[in-house]
Amino acid sequence: VKSAQDVGKLEEIKDKVYKLGFNFGKLIVGPDEFETKLIKKDMVSRGLAELYWEPEGIVMSRTGVECVVAATDQYYLPYGEPEWQSLVMNHVQKVLQTYNPKTQSEFVYRVNWLKEWACSREFGLGTKLPMDPKFVIESLSDSTIYMAFYTVCHHFLDGELDGSASKNPLKPEWFTPEVWDAIFLAKDVPKHCKISPDLITKMRKEFEYWYPMDLRVSGKDLIPNHLTMCLYNHAAIWKNDPNKWPVSFFTNGHILIDKEKMSKQTGNFLTLFDTIQLYGADATRLALADAGDGLEDANFSKDVANAAVLKLTKLETWMNDAIETTKSQREGSFTNLDKMFDNAINIAIIETDKAYADMQFRHALGFLILKGRGRGGGGGRGEEGEGNLKKIHFSHFYPISTGYFSLENAKNYYVTHVVGGPHKLNNHMIISAPLFAEFSRAKKERERKKT
Fold first, then answer.
1. 374 class by beta-carbon count within 10 Å (0-12 exposed, 13-18 middle, 19+ buried)
2. Domain residue ranges in the chain
3. Are 249 and 275 in contact (CB under 8 A)?
4. Topology given in CATH for the domain delimited by 76-252
5. pLDDT at 329
6. pLDDT in tens, 172-184
7. Taking the CB of residue 427, how many other CB atoms lie within 10 A of it?
8. Helix 281-290 vs helix 272-279: angle between axes, to the nearest 10 degrees?
9. What does the pLDDT read at residue 446?
10. With contact defined as beta carbons under 8 Å apart, do 55 and 67 qualify?
11. CA dihedral in degrees (294, 300, 301, 305; nearest 10)?
């Protein structure tokens, strides 16, 4: 605080000092000192005071009503219990990939911070609490291992995941805790079960195939609750099998539009449907990839989206022109310029693969600059130069631009000479940059042996 004008900081300091004084201060009467917590205890014991609770600040419900604290019966999950906490902390510090040091630090802090959590309520939608059905399980507490359910949920929907199934072939009441134990914990199939043992075995195999959860993408505001609880509950259910615990979490900030918060009131608001109608799916995905990565709020720029439309059009024109001129380009041994160009491609492959592995999509977009390097320049070797560049473009941009850089386009344009002759693609294969790098190395090795 530098002056009396720092109202915000003074208010914050006042709140902290008042709170510390109330909980840990001393009352001085003449030469005597009395701790406030002892005074409180004495007054309550003699009936001169009552304990009450209130929120630290104003809390508003989703219906716009100010909340108060009510004393009700409550069940708690003992997050923070030493042994349980130790298992989760070890996983966070040694196993969990968070893609960002700040994110990992936040998880470490939250694992230490999270203690008893009220996990029940008396009304509303939710699962009945098994030991006390008059309560329902609070929503955050009831949504921590549903990813496991994803692996087998299609069996409940007659194979349809869009809700179009006319009936559910399996009844919820058939799935007792013993049945779920057989599916998720590989325990014996219970006797007198109405579900066929073959189906339970199939569901178990499907769960074992998909788990652990390799990646969960979520908002940074869920680190203090849902994501940390997800770790705790995986550690509880699969205590003896850490290989079933989440492998990585990627958390992002909120999204801005042209550096302003989204708001329907101000009109600064876009839905995914709106953006696709305005810019198309590929340009939208490019603008989102450019918006930013990590915990900071991402900025969706309308100018970038508009520019992406033009950039994709120019890129398509350049690729089509390059395809027409590939056969007319020079052949023969590599010149120094060819080697420099080929090396630039290889560096970009490594950097782009690393960027995707680290969930850094904006950095992955940097590969676009190679388009400019490959144009003009005195007719480089078609197949080994710009031809290779075009193939790499397809493989590296497919995760972002799945429309233009589609497999169908790859089949139409880039089934070219690779190891052993034409390389046929099918709908179950996506071109990979390491594969193309291997093609390049193999060809060069064959040329070296010939000479």
1. buried
2. 1-65, 76-252, 262-450
3. no
4. Rossmann fold (3.40.50)
5. 63
6. 889 999 999 999 9
7. 8
8. 110
9. 54
10. yes
11. 110
Task: Say whether 90 sits in a helix, a strand or coil.
Answer: helix
- DSSP letter for each residue of 341-401: HHHHHHHHHHHHHHHHHTT-HHHHGGGGHHHHHHSSSS---IIIIIHHHHHHHHHHHTTT-
One fold for both 76-252 and 262-450? no
Q: What is the pTM of this model?
A: 0.72
Local structure of residue 356 (DSSP, 8 states): H
Judge contact between 443 and 384, C-beta under 8 A.
Answer: yes
Taking residues 86-91, what's their average pLDDT? 96
Residue position matching structure tokens 């970038």 = 304
Q: Contact at 8 Å (CB) between 376 and 369?
A: no
CA distance linking residue 242 with residue 87, whole number of Å: 9
Pairing mode of beta strands 417-418, 421-422: antiparallel
Identify the pLDDT of residue 339: 78
Alpha-carbon distance 444 to 18, whole Å?
74
With 0-12 / 13-18 / 19 or more C-beta atoms within 10 angstroms meaning exposed / middle / buried, residue 445 is exposed
Tokens describing residue 52:
């009450």
Tokens 């911070």 sit on residue:
113
State which fold the 262-450 domain adopts.
Isoleucyl-tRNA Synthetase; Domain 1 (1.10.730)
At residue 120's C-alpha, the angle toward residues 114 and 122, to 5°, is 150
Residues 35, 28 contacting (CB under 8 angstroms): no
Query: Are 75 and 129 a contacting pair, CB within 8 Å?
Result: yes
Q: Nearest 10 degrees: CA dihedral of 392, 248, 142, 295?
A: -80
Alpha carbon distance 255, 291 (integer Å): 8
Report which residue type is found at 385.
G
φ, ψ for residue 208, nearest 5 deg: -65, -30
Q: How many residues does the chain have?
A: 451
* β partners of residue 121: 136
